[in-house]
Design goal:
Blueprint (H helix, E strand, L loop, with lengths): L2 E2 L2 E4 L3 H12 L4 E4 L17 E4 L1 H10 L11 E3 L1 E5 L6 E5 L9 E5 H13 L4 E4 L4 E6 L4 E5 L4 E4 L1 E4 L6 H6 L3 E17 L6 E7 L2 E8 L3 E9 H9 L2 H11 L7 E17 L3 E2 L2 E3 L5 E2 L7 H17 L10 H29 L4 H16 L1 H12 L1
Parallel strand pairs: 1-12, 2-3, 2-13, 3-9, 6-15, 13-20
Antiparallel strand pairs: 4-8, 5-8, 6-7, 10-11, 11-12, 14-17, 14-18, 15-16, 16-17, 18-21, 19-20
Bound molecules: flavin-adenine dinucleotide (FAD).
């Protein structure tokens, strides 16, 4: 006996759970299947080392979903300015929300604070049925519906199934959708620090020869680090005791925020570029990291994923008389709407990564020159900011 839905979503990470809320707002009966137990506690005593820089477009979307209202504003840090440094002492590129006519460039939020707000939102929606923790065992795609079997014996059926199950998507593999993956041979090391000097809401980033180091402001005198660096260097950073890590990060950041003290220990994330040939098939669509993986240097992965979820929900809401959520031609509209944005972000982050992950002295001079020239072009800078905030 099948349980019947309008849409089944596999994966209740940030993108999948936001999509379930959007679909519920559109009145669609939605099942969300997540491998892990729902994470409901917003905060622990410490600060989550997984943080996201969300652009204003993502925040508008989360507000429309009804999730942003559930995030404690005391744990959110608006970013008003961004300073990017080259690997010489002179090269710098500054972006300011004020110059671009924006209230803020981005907001920094902890992963668990946002994820728990999404789960609490989902629990309050009668249109959404939560299957978590749950394990998927089989997928069958037929002409009129997709059927998903769970390990506990339940079977779900809907005209559309959505893969929001991350970079190693089980659903994508089951559907046989080809993925082109290129490891960067780099790992992102993250950790949080207390700072000696106030950050004043400024995000700092250094394009160094040993990788890209970002210190993103958290509420109070705290910052969150993302250091994307070659695997061997990352392994060394992961092995450092807290005092030594703080000394090395303070030195790599030219003591911009004075001395540092570790408040959340290191964690590591291997980096890769991933592209899929198809985001949709009849009865199936992919969103978020299941559909694309980008380098975190621009902090855009989940922002892209939220734009997928927003556009898929809008496409389904606009289906009108054509009532079938899983119709291939309807889903193609979603795929076409997303292609350019995703390809542009993959190209930009991959090109920047290649440009800066190179020891050549002339290339180092060229990129430092590029930062200085761009810094003098306010129209170009405003264009870049407007594009980045989505
Ligand atoms: C170091 C680092 C820093 C980053 N910083 C930023 C940033 O500042 N801004 C930004 O926009 N992006 C950032 N990103 C990118 C961002 O982390 C990802 O793009 C985002 O987490 C993708 O969300 P998702 O929901 O698509 O996938 P995921 O977060 O991977 O979630 C997938 C979910 O699916 C579940 N799942 C997996 N398999 C199954 C299965 N078989 N059945 C059921 N459930 C399953 C998982 O448990 C998980 O909950 C960063 C990435 C890294 C590595």
């Amino acid at each position: 006996m099948h349980m019947l839905f309008d849409v089944i979503i596999v994966g209740g990470g940030l993108v999948g759970s936001s999509l379930a809320l959007s679909l519920a707002n559109g009145g669609l009966k939605t099942a969300i299947v997540e491998a892990r137990a729902p994470q409901l506690a917003a905060h622990a005593a410490d600060w989550d080392s997984r943080i996201y820089a969300l652009g204003p477009g993502s925040i508008d979307y989360l507000n429309a979903c009804g999730a942003w209202q559930g995030v404690d504003s005391n744990r959110v840090m608006p970013v008003e300015d961004m300073r990017i440094f080259g690997d010489d002492a002179r090269s710098e590129l500054d972006f300011s929300a004020y110059d671009a006519g924006l209230r803020e460039l981005a907001a920094i939020v902890e992963s668990r604070a946002l994820q728990s707000a999404l789960w609490r939102g989902l629990q309050a929606r009668p249109e959404v049925e939560i299957f978590a923790p749950a394990s998927c065992t089989a997928l069958k795609i037929e002409a009129d519906a997709a059927t998903l079997d769970l390990a506990d014996g339940r079977s779900l059926r809907a005209p559309l199934i959505v893969g929001a199950d991350g970079g190693n998507s089980w659903l994508r593999t089951q559907a046989g959708i080809a993925v082109e993956a290129r490891p960067y041979a780099q790992t992102a090391v993250v950790a949080n620090f207390a700072t000696e000097q106030p950050h004043r809401g400024i995000a700092h980033q250094w394009f160094r020869r040993d990788g890209i180091l970002a210190l993103l402001p958290l509420p109070g005198e705290r910052v969150s680090m993302v250091w994307s660096t070659r695997d061997e260097h990352a392994a060394k950073l992961m092995g450092l005791p807290p005092e030594e890590l703080a000394v090395q990060v303070a030195a790599a950041s030219a003591q911009q925020l004075g001395g540092l003290r570790v408040i959340t220990p290191q964690a590591a994330f291997p980096l890769r570029l991933q592209r899929v040939r198809e985001m949709v098939r009849s009865r199936l669509a992919l969103v978020g990291d299941a559909a694309h993986n980008v380098h975190p240097l621009a902090g855009q992965g989940v922002n892209l994923g939220f734009r997928d979820a927003r556009d898929l929900a809008a496409t389904l809401a606009a289906r009108g008389a054509q009532n079938d959520c899983g119709d291939f031609y309807l889903l193609r509209r979603y795929e076409r709407a997303r292609r350019e944005d995703i390809a542009a972000m993959q190209f930009a982050t991959d090109t920047l990564q290649r440009l800066f992950n190179n020891e050549s002295a002339w290339l180092a001079r060229a990129r430092n020159f590029g930062l200085r020239v761009t810094n003098r072009q306010s129209a170009l800078k405003n264009f870049l900011v407007q594009h980045a905030v989505g």
